[in-house]
Amino acid sequence: METTDFFVIVGLQPWYTSIGSNCKHIARTLSLTNKVLYINSSLDRRSVLENKGNPDIERHIGVIRSGKGLINQVEDNLWEYYPSRILESINWIPSTWLFQKLNYLNNRRFAEDIKEAVTLMGGGNYYLFNDNEIFRAFYLKQLLNPKAYIYYCRDFLLGVDYWKKHGQAIEPLHIKNADVALANSSYLAGYLKKYNSRSYDIGQGCDTVMFNGRQERIIPKDLACIEGIKIGYVGALNTLRLDLGCLIDIAAARPAWQLVLVGPEDDNFKKSALHEMENVHFLGQKPLADLASYIAGFDVCLNPQRINDVTIGNYPLKIDEYLNMGKPVVATRTETMAMFESYTYLADKPADYVALIERALREDSPENKERRITFASEHTWKNSVAKMLEALAGLG
């Protein structure tokens, strides 16, 4: 394929999301050699009614009402577009057959927005990349007739009730219909291959410039003031994905260790016994640009992942971020984590964590730090996108 191809990207996260996003990294990497149009998530009636006061929703509504700023150049070769058509909130419908009838109408509205955005970009044929949006993009291939349609799976969404309700019947058809199906882990690629032989594991990228363990860091004040061995976690504190009991057990078993948690909490974390423990420190959500400095202050990094339908196949990006910072890592063993076996300490069960943390502290060395950085530095978005372009070139 030519390096001047045009890509249109749709998905679950708008460009203005404040959290890290695979899709945004892919868009940025593609834009180094291609024109990229990033379509923000459409608003639906429920989100408009229930998210009053949300600055992102209000900004989107303001753009729609004014008709100004629908399309904006955000970086070289990269534009974002605000869809103006409001979609119907239909997931409550019990019948999947009826849901799909109404979903087609939502898809038509979304497709009209995309057509208008492409026209504003000067028109032309393009590749349509869908970041895990099962419903609102289901009919886009037939409505837009792109050069090729790419379905990207980075999470097993059917493990979540919202997506499972209609997605069990719809996602397999979606995958089958794609010209190319891509995943960021071997587990998810195996899932895709059940329905589409043109399925590929393109791996995961990491920002190796931001997370660079060879760079000197100033440890943030709220972390530097904590004395003792710091065992840390960076990311959303969500009990769907994290083993809350495991963290409580670690803090209870070793009171001299300081358990430091950086990220927003769900309600279960907010109510948990961790808040009553003197050696546990909640530092809250931090800007993405500051996370490497927090990781730099940890002695050992954790990912005490729960094993369930949602997490079993995911690629935890934080592992690459930790390793690129040169840090010893203790994490839950999964199929995806097997590729990190020689560079991390993998727990088969929660009770293994304390002993593995002790081993990680004992075995840490400058040589092991360098091994970790060298290994993780190969996991770049450039390499991941190159695999995607290779898969597209194979279409002929």
Oligomer: single chain
- Number of extended strands: 14
The CATH topology label of the largest domain is: Rossmann fold
Q: What's the CATH H-level homologous superfamily of the largest domain?
A: Glycogen Phosphorylase B
Helix content: 25-40%
Description:
The protein is of the alpha/beta class and 396 residues long. The chain has two domains: 6-205 and 380-393, Glycogen Phosphorylase B (Rossmann fold, 3-Layer(aba) Sandwich), CATH 3.40.50.2000; 221-376, Rossmann fold (3-Layer(aba) Sandwich). 38% of the residues lie in helices and 16% in strands. The strands form two sheets. It has an eight-stranded mixed sheet, with helices on both faces. It has a six-stranded parallel sheet with strand order 11-10-9-12-13-14, with helices on both faces. The longest helix is centred in the first third of the chain and has 25 residues, at 96-120. The relative contact order is 0.11. The model has no long low-confidence stretch (mean pLDDT 93).
Give a concise summary:
This protein is an alpha/beta fold and 396 residues long. Helices cover 38% and strands 16% of the residues.
Features:
396 residues, alpha/beta, Rossmann fold, 2 domains, 8-stranded mixed sheet, 6-stranded parallel sheet, 15 helices, 38% helix, globular
Record the SSE blueprint.
Elements: E1 6-11, H1 22-30, E2 35-39, H2 45-50, H3 55-66, E3 71-75, E4 78-81, H4 96-120, E5 127-131, H5 140-144, E6 148-153, H6 161-177, E7 180-183, H7 186-193, E8 199-201, H8 221-224, E9 230-234, H9 244-253, E10 258-262, H10 267-270, E11 280-282, H11 291-296, E12 300-303, H12 317-324, E13 329-332, E14 345-347, H13 353-363, H14 366-376, H15 381-393
Parallel strand pairs: 1-2, 1-5, 2-4, 5-6, 6-7, 7-8, 9-10, 9-12, 10-11, 12-13, 13-14
Antiparallel strand pairs: 3-4
Helix pairs in contact: 1-15, 12-14
